Amino acid sequence: MKYYVVIPAHNEQDFLEGTLQSLISQTLLPKKVIIVNDNSTDNTEAIIDKFTTNCPFITKLNTTSSTEHMPGSKVINAFTKGLALLDEEYDFIVKLDADLILPTNYFSEIATVFKTNSTAGVAGGFVFEKNKLGEWQLNHPMHKKHVRGAFKAYSNTCFKAIGGLKNAMGWDTVDELLTQYHGFEVITLDGLNVKHLRPTGDAYNKKAKQLQGKAMYQMHYGFIITLIASLKMAFKQQKLNAFFDNIKGYLNAKKQKTPFLVAPEEGQFIRNLRWKGIKKQLF
């Protein structure tokens, strides 16, 4: 199968080479790779140039944006700019972070999913990060039917149906909700383990703390579901402040009449889906 990869990269000199080496070592190589050098001030561009010289399917795109590492907006802006350089003649498209090590069979396994399952819309493996003892362990903060935003693969038809990726915090939740709204499945593959070299959120700006609650408002969660989801998140992270930040972000977004990310009928589907999940966990 034919697949394209877009990699947003901002000051990734410590990780990018390992990511690209694992990408060009795949048993099924991508047809095109766009690396978006997003306002890097370190050695990122030199690393990209090293790979573009030897790999004709890799292209560099230099772009300028804010130096603030805000979750959602910065990375999706960069992804969108890279996507604009590609045609639509792919079987699946991949948004890939620049701080990962992929197993060599990663994309051949993903291709098999899309080739054998016409309803597969999103596919991916699982994140492993080093613990304090230096051991690689599963770090998948959501349910096991969720594909982390760091390595999401979308079928061509699904990507078009959901309208691409939303430029907001929560883009890697709303994409899967819309995937299901349009009748596609989210597929996760046990045993397809990706090494994440930098813990999630380490580079995020402190201004981002209320964006999760804002995203819940924009996805039409409603206050009760936001309350439940925020409690669950705070408990899982063992951070009480995360609960209050979420609620404050939600209420501020409502007060400011922030535009929604999804249409009312999509929002109704999302709320029904969320209530179904909540009831399943309770009963």
TrEMBL record:
Listed name of the protein: Glycosyl transferase family 2
Signal peptide residue numbers: none
Lineage, top ranks: Bacteria, Pseudomonadati, Bacteroidota, Flavobacteriia, Flavobacteriales
InterPro entries in the record: Glyco_trans_2-like (IPR001173), Nucleotide-diphossugar_trans (IPR029044)
GO MF annotation terms: glycosyltransferase activity
Domain Glycosyltransferase 2-like: 5-155
Record keywords: Glycosyltransferase, Transferase
Family listed: Belongs to the glycosyltransferase 2 family.
